[in-house]
From TrEMBL:
Protein name in UniProt: Alginate biosynthesis transcriptional regulatory protein AlgB
Highest taxon of the lineage: Bacteria
Lineage: Bacteria, Pseudomonadati, Verrucomicrobiota, Verrucomicrobiia, Verrucomicrobiales
Residues annotated as domain Response regulatory: 2-116
Alphabetical list of Gene3D superfamilies matching this protein: 1.10.8.60, 3.40.50.2300, Homeodomain-like, P-loop containing nucleotide triphosphate hydrolases
Gene (name only): algB
Residue ranges of every copy of the Sigma-54 factor interaction domain listed in the record: 164-377
Entry keyword Zinc-finger: no
Keyword match rRNA processing: no
Alphabetical keyword list: ATP-binding, DNA-binding, Nucleotide-binding, Phosphoprotein, Transcription, Transcription regulation
In-chain residues carrying the UniProt-annotated modification 4-aspartylphosphate: D51
PANTHER family, per database record: ALGINATE BIOSYNTHESIS TRANSCRIPTIONAL REGULATORY PROTEIN ALGB (PTHR32071:SF113), TRANSCRIPTIONAL REGULATORY PROTEIN (PTHR32071)
Length: 458
């Protein structure tokens, strides 16, 4: 623990410091209230020992002054003038405990054990607050039921690896296009792990500036940058004992990468603007829709960090690569949204089913969910019709690559060949086999092979 002794008697400061240091604690001591307030402003201490008679100063007044500024500070009063009256006064003023001089090392240890319990309880409250926040996020999204089964062999194998590894403390890296369900999977890994009762804390890497992200992760001390008006704990602290989920890790700035590596490797970190090293006990799950290996090759992501994160790695296939699951998701979303708005919709008519199956779903489950929610609202009859769904010839869907980049669009200033190549590339991305791709494109397999070679689509 980090302790501060405020006592004007040099011998008491020295002997108490020695006794506490022997117990492995970090101890500082000061002789007056001015130095004490200065240190409390600069540092955070787990427990303060305050002498009730501090030269000319009144310990009770100093106690009030400390608690006014730092209401959660634990303060134990030292006094040579023990009496029920002073004890009552000190506790009424908010003292955590009371120690009569001269005290024994055992009494001191007793106080420390009690303070440790109190701090742990406070830590639990912070963790609970974090959990409530996460649950509120989950609930406010009002999600349809989650489904982690798959008829697609590759997807099923990826999920199997992932969930078998859930119970280990190993870091997990979840790769996959946007909307494939990486955040949802990260939560599920946490729920299936031994840490399920502990906090699950999310940090979205791109949503913050570098400075803010560093302080959000590790916390900061007062004065460490403009606007840092008080000491703040970070998400690493909030996730203590549980899971820290780093979303969009591919966007983690280079400057922060060594700090995350240290957290993973040494299990320690420092708050921004502070030299004190703190232990961290968190399991890290990271996700990205970027090609992290390519980022490593391009020198944009540290290789050592990549390997640390990559202990267990899964790639969630895009929805077009698991067509056998599409209908099930569509039906489950339909049931959820029709119940939500109190409508009886029995399913999709044949034409609508065809549209569902032919669309490439570049936005994956998120896009499907939104499309079904919209269709549920628009549906006139008992069945969803093709016109309730996004148009199959939606230019965006036809021309946007899996990385979201646009290609030539229908009606623009493009040669037919360019459109042909873009269309073929997209279909090849999601069609389950070359035979299926040829059937969808309306050409025979030999022509497909020839064109693939010509366009370099291998
Ligand atoms: N296993 C699942 N079962 C049912 N629906 C799912 C599942 N996974 C994801 N979804 C749906 O897809 C939406 C998007 O999921 P999520 O936010 O986890 O994707 P993501 O891959 O993290 O996306 P991004 O990369 O854009 O952050 C969810 O809100 C949910 O509606």
């Amino acid at each position: 623990m980090d302790l501060l002794i405020i006592d004007d008697e040099a011998t008491i400061r020295k002997t108490t410091t020695l006794a506490l240091e022997q117990g492995g604690h970090y101890v500082e001591s000061v002789a007056d209230s001015e130095s004490a307030m200065l240190r409390l402003k600069e540092e955070s201490f787990d427990l303060v020992f305050l002498d009730l008679r501090l030269g000319d100063e009144d310990g009770l007044e100093i106690l009030t002054q400390i608690l006014k500024k730092y209401p959660r500070q634990l303060v134990t009063i030292f006094t040579a003038h023990a009496s029920v009256e002073t004890a009552v006064k000190a506790t009424q003023a908010g003292a955590f405990d009371y120690l009569e001089k001269p005290f024994t090392p055992d009494q001191l240890r007793g106080i420390l054990a009690k303070a440790k319990r109190a701090l742990a309880t406070e830590g639990e409250v912070v963790k609970l607050q974090e959990t409530v926040r996460e649950l509120q996020t989950e609930a406010s999204q009002n999600n349809p039921p989650l489904d982690f089964s798959s008829q697609d062999k590759r997807t099923a194998a990826e999920f199997d690896t992932l969930f078998r590894a859930a119970a280990s403390p190993a870091s997990v890296l979840i790769l996959g296009e946007s909307g494939t369900g990486k955040s949802v999977i990260a939560r599920e890994v946490h729920h299936r792990s031994h840490l399920r009762e502990k906090p699950f804390v999310t940090v979205s890497c791109p949503s913050l500036s570098r400075e803010l992200l560093e302080s959000t992760l590790f916390g900061h001390v007062k004065g460490s940058f403009t606007g840092a008006v008080k000491d703040v704990w970070g998400k690493v602290h909030a996730a203590e004992g549980g899971t820290l989920f780093l979303d969009e890790i591919g966007e983690l700035p280079m400057e922060i990468q060594p700090k995350l590596l240290r957290l993973l490797q040494e299990r320690e970190y420092e708050r921004v603007g502070e030299n004190k090293t703190r232990p961290a006990n968190v399991r890290v799950i990271a996700a990205t829709n970027r090609d992290l290996a390519a980022q490593v090759a391009a020198g944009e992501f540290r290789e050592d960090l990549y390997y640390r994160l990559n202990v267990i790695s899964v790639t969630v296939p895009g929805l077009r690569h698991r067509p056998s699951d599409l209908q099930r998701f569509a039906e489950s979303y339909l049931l959820h949204f029709s119940n939500q708005i109190g409508r009886k919709i029995r399913g999709f008519n044949d034409e609508a089913t065809q549209v569902l199956m032919r669309h490439a779903w570049p936005g994956n489950l998120r896009e499907l969910r939104n499309a079904i929610e919209r269709a549920t609202i628009l549906a006139r009859g008992e069945y969803i019709e093709a016109t309730d769904l996004p148009k199959p010839a939606d230019t965006e869907a036809l021309t946007a690559g899996s990385n979201g980049q646009k290609g030539p669009s229908v009606g623009g200033e493009y040669r037919i060949e360019e459109l042909e190549e873009a269309h073929m590339r997209r279909v090849l991305e999601w069609a389950p086999s070359l035979q299926d791709a040829a059937a969808i494109l309306g050409i025979d397999k030999a022509t497909l092979y020839r064109k693939r070679k010509r366009f370099g689509l291998t």
